[in-house]
Amino acid sequence: MKTLRRVLIADLCAQSFHVEERPDLFSEYIGGAGVSSALLKEYQGCSPEGPAIFAVGPFTALFPMASKTVASFISPLTGNYGESHAGGRSAVSLRMAGYGALVVLGQAPFPQYLVVDEEGVRFEDARSLWGMKNCSTPARIMREKEGGAGLRSILRIGPAGENGVAYASVTTETYRHFGRMGLGAVFGKKKLKGIVLKGARETPVSEPALYKTLYNELYTQMASSDLMKKYHDLGTPANILPLHEMGGLPVCNLKQRTLSPDEATNLSGEHFAARFLNRRLACSHCPVACIHLAALRLEAPSEPYFYQTSYVSYDYELLYALGSMIGVTDAQNVLRLIDRVEQYGMDAISTGVILAWMTEAYEKDFLPHDLFGEEIPRWGHTEAYLSLIDKICFDPAPFFETARKGCAALSETYGGKDFALVFGKNEMPGYHTGIGAHLGFLLGIRHSHLDNAGYALDQKQDREVFSSPDHLARALLREEAFRHILSSLVVCFFARNIFAPDKILQLSQSINISLPDDLLQKGLDLYRAKLSFKEELGFRWEELSLPLRVCVAKTPGIQPDPDFAHKTLAAARGFLNDSSFSLS
To answer: What is the tens place of the pLDDT at every residue in 268-280?
Structure first.
């Protein structure tokens, strides 16, 4: 496992790199989210522009669905610790290049991209790629120029990252993203257009017979399991109809609880699959293929029957944010909005929540009526939203400069905090299922539905869990702790029920990785370490609060209550400060 000992440090300012052997780091923090956050803490004072850290885990390139890379950085959106995960090929490419982590420091003297391979780092001129309006074009040019044997992955930003949009994303393999919390803006500030990862190293195992047996068991379970079938057949858009039927799908900034039956059907995964699905893709080393691509005809034909076609990846969170959240229910129009956001390299969730806030703020006269020109924000008005996405990315007017900073900045500047759906300054994910989900967003390091699945607690409706703040805090911390293990290994959360703690310990034995028997306690320690770092960066527990709108908008679960939420957060903080607290 020597490749998971090595950390590659690239300095854009000095145009130099070196490799460090860090077995201590991977022994203490496992990999992935644990290692990337520890490296960010270590290097954050070495780079005024903010370091960008990428890390993989001990299961990467060895087991199916251990296919994500974790990025850690100082978030331009929240001003605090930022973390984002991406699938595709980047994780396996980085490990096959011989590294467990990549640290990018400094600011380039002019736009550049990095080429990372087994020899180290090359610094390539990207001035001709800077300013292109579609982030797919620079990737194609880098791919044609760099070629490369083995496994290759290309990370890049679009104009949103170059222009400092605080929720700009980094795209990898066209259809996967480091989407949340603004890694794209960190790249932009560094004048870093992209990173090409190339690797062809082998990753040997210490117990080949045991490894083969366990691998085959995992693969068979993933390929045949009902747990994975919905992700293959419909992808995450399979969640649209169930969440809508239970009243947990956010609609029009939570002003209304449901869509009409026809509108919900138009947004459903079933409808997209029947009308638009062109093909499915999988992340590297994954048998499920949850990535669903729609074929979208973009323009009227220049000659009969000849259309420009774009292939658009659609997921549940995108259909929520650029669909139900802003009242757009025509499937083709939702795809048009997703395509525009993809071209510019913006986080779709943040963009949709910001558009929803703008629409309600305009309705309630918080904003001047001459601010938007002819295309004013109205629920379901696709052309207006396309225009607003353009303006957010490019318009120098003060209002759109503020919009580039996020929904929290808009509501602080123009009013409308009561209906600004932000958690720790990060825009709301697409689950309005009850107090479990919303407290999960606050407790999660990324303020994401993926952090601790509080929404799953809402759906189970376990009365004991919600009987007291202590019980709910303990349940949320248990979810958070286990997911810190998964994100340090790094395992796709879709496979969380397959990678149970006992199975993880078996797998680690086959590749000679030492993990503690009490995985939940180790996950809790990793979570505590991140929270401690966040506090050093300025995070304050007393500043956490639920948005007022989620407390008054009807949910299918336990209704969010500010007093109960405050007590639950206090209970969680107390547990975390108690060194004897155990989840076992």
So the answer is: 999 999 999 999 9
